[in-house]
Design a protein that fits this description.
By secondary structure, the protein is an alpha/beta fold. It has helices at 16-30, 62-74, 124-139, 149-158, 200-210, 222-227, 229-232, 245-254, 269-275, 289-293, 306-322, 324-335, 341-355; strands at 2-6, 36-37, 81-86, 105-109, 143-146, 166-168, 185-191, 215-219, 237-240, 255-260, 280-284, 298-300. The longest helix has 17 residues, at 306-322.
Length: 356
């Protein structure tokens, strides 16, 4: 009997949830497991543009709360499946009455960030709705896969009675690329949708301090573009809101530093994808990204002043220039400790087989 994937929430190539689904499905297929997609949105059909309208919508908003319910009501599960797997945090919140033919249920939770935000970052209503949906989703499944130990720890604190359901299986990371001496450019890559906790205010301050020394390539949505409009006109700042994978890969290869100012990250696949190129990552510590970076990134506190971030960016550029092979080897040694996608898929398949 096959595995059914609920693809609610999988829409955009630059969503970490969707990228997780792409790579996991590819690796599962190599192991002989081909998930069936419930709503005909397999990863190969995901939109490859970073646009606000295509991002997985926020199911905790009032409008999308009812949209989530309607999607489930209008698309009941049909067919015989041994395992149902939801991949975007809240799948399964309304699933119980429609899955009599399914004997096991798995949910992947990437983070519970909406529950960590204060009243200045999100509304009480959104926080309450998110917790209601997450509680229902976790209650309705047999196993919850957490993509970081940080996420697993938070879930255990919030839902101690469900602690036995939580297991840790990280996102995968591709092997590091071979070392090739190349010209380095004083350029910074930043990839993020606009959210209150993503650190756009800090990013704006950093740009004002060091944009005369470093170029910034910012891939974001229309809200991010609007927020950064005062600094995006600078000659050293380049913004993008519709960019395909090959163009993004070109930016990764060109830029010397990846900047992540987000206060919270369940895992942070963009940082992992940049790290495998043997390049520097400057990031905000204190969440799941710490597990990705280990000791080879440049970590700062969320409340560190912008000038400290600016100084760290400058240092992160010059250190590899002075010792390129040494810095590369440090990153290579760390990357070898991270799980690859085939290893992750093998662990997920083990969960399926245990529950069948």
């Amino acid at each position: 009997m096959s595995v059914l994937w609920d693809d609610f929430g999988l829409h955009n190539l630059y969503s970490g949830v969707s990228r997780h689904a792409i790579r996991l499905s590819q690796s599962l297929l190599q192991l002989g497991e081909s998930p069936v997609f419930r709503n005909s949105c397999p990863p190969q059909k995901l939109n490859n543009l970073f646009s606000l309208s295509e991002l997985p919508y926020n199911a905790s908003s009032k409008k999308n709360f009812f949209k989530l319910l309607r999607v489930v009501m209008e698309n009941p599960v049909r067919g015989d499946f041994s395992v149902w797997h939801g991949l975007s945090n809240l799948n399964g919140a309304f699933e119980s009455r429609f899955r009599s033919s399914i004997c096991a249920r798995v949910l992947t939770v990437h983070d519970i960030i909406p529950l960590l935000l204060d009243k200045h970052q999100t509304s009480r209503l959104k926080r309450s709705q998110y917790k209601y949906l997450l509680t229902r989703a976790i209650s309705n499944v047999d196993q919850v896969i957490c993509v970081s130990k940080w996420t697993q720890s938070l879930l255990s604190d919030v839902y101690p009675k469900f602690q036995s359901k939580f297991i840790f299986i990280p996102n995968g990371v591709d092997p590091i690329l071979p070392y090739v001496p190349r010209e380095t450019y004083p350029e910074v890559l930043f990839v993020s949708r606009f959210e209150s906790y993503k650190g756009f205010k800090l990013l704006e301050k950093i740009i004002r301090i060091v944009s005369d020394k470093l170029k910034f390539h910012i891939v974001t949505d229309v809200n991010g573009l609007h927020y950064l409009k005062q600094v995006s006109s600078r000659s050293q700042v380049f913004t993008y809101t519709a960019i395909n994978e090959s163009e993004l890969d070109g930016l990764r290869r060109r830029c010397s530093i990846y900047l992540q100012t987000s206060r919270y990250e369940g895992f942070c696949l963009p940082a992992a994808e940049f790290l495998r190129m043997g390049k520097s990552v400057v990031y905000c510590k204190g969440s799941g990204i710490d597990e990705v970076m280990g000791d080879c990134g440049y970590a700062l506190n969320a409340d560190s002043p912008a000038n400290h971030w600016a100084e760290t960016l400058t240092h992160a550029y010059h250190e590899p220039v002075d010792n390129p092979q040494g810095c590369y080897l440090d990153i290579k040694n760390h990357c070898e400790t991270l799980k690859t996608w085939p290893e992750v898929a093998s662990k997920v398949l083990g969960v399926y087989n245990q529950l069948r």
